[in-house]
Structure formats: C-alpha cells, structure tokens
Amino acid sequence: MHSEEIKNTIGAHGIWKQRLRRAIESGNGDFTVDKIKVDHQCDFGKWLHSLSSDEKNSPHWHNIQQLHAKFHIEAARLFELATQGKQQEALDAMLIGGDFARLSGQLTMAMVKWKSTIT
Q1: How far is it, in rounded angstroms, from Cα 78 to Cα 65?
Q2: 45/41 Cα distance (integer angstroms)
Q3: Which residues are within 8 A (CB) of 112 and not within 5 positions of it... i.e. 6 or more apart?
C-alpha cells in the first residue's frame, strides 16, 4: 500500500459524500438505505476491504474500518430521513456538529494518520 492510494481513497469518499448530499437534496439517485448502510460498496470501502491480510492486521485498518462502518450507518439514517420527506432535517444533520460530520472528520483524520506512517 502506498500513501498515494490513501490520498486517492480520501478523495473518493469525499466524492461519495457529495453524491449522497445531492441524492438527499433531490430525493433521488442510485442510493437506497440498504445500499448505503453497507460499508464495502463505495469505492473507499471496496479498497479498504481489498487490502492484504498484513494490512488488515494494522491497528489503523481496524480503527478506520469501524469508523467507516459507523459513518455508513449514519449516512443511511440521513438518507432514510430524506426519503420520508424530511430532506431539510437530513441536510441539517450533515452540518458540522452532527454525527455525520463528526464521523466523517474522524475517518479522514484516521486516514491521514495512517498515511503518515507509510513511507
């Protein structure tokens, strides 16, 4: 694994969050609550779960995997709100101070920390 891979996956997750936001705003998209809830369907998750056994033995991997799974559960909750006609509530919950932003920030910081340990 290279630090460039981690940088790219951070970017991929940012793009996914933008897609989620647009889906919440518009009330449509290729998302479903069940698809969002699963943490290995987005590009970031596919990459994370495809790493070698040695890489998965890293304490960084375990922390990131747990944060990523929690992030997807929260994202699914927000999308579900939007599908129930509570789009503004879902969008408000994405703002700084909410669980979505907190988990997203923790995940990014954990990835940056992991990246700093790779030469």
Answers
A1: 20
A2: 6
A3: 10
State how far the Cα of 57 lies from the Cα of 66, in Å rounded to an integer: 13
Average pLDDT of span 69-89: 93
Domains and their CATH numbers in the chain: 3-116 (1.20.120.30)
| Backbone phi, psi, residue 71, to 5° | -60, -45
Q: How confident is the model at residue 119 (pLDDT cuts 50, 70, 90)?
A: low
Judged against a pLDDT cut of 60, whether residue 81 lies above it is answered with yes
3 state SS for the chain: CCHHHHHHHHHHHHHHHHHHHHHHHHCCCCCCHHHHHCCCCCHHHHHHHHCCHHHHCCHHHHHHHHHHHHHHHHHHHHHHHHHCCCHHHHHHHCCCCCHHHHHHHHHHHHHHHHHHCCC
Residue 38's pLDDT is what?
A: 93
Handedness of CA 100, 96, 21, 15 (dihedral sign): negative
> For residue 85, what is the DSSP state?
T
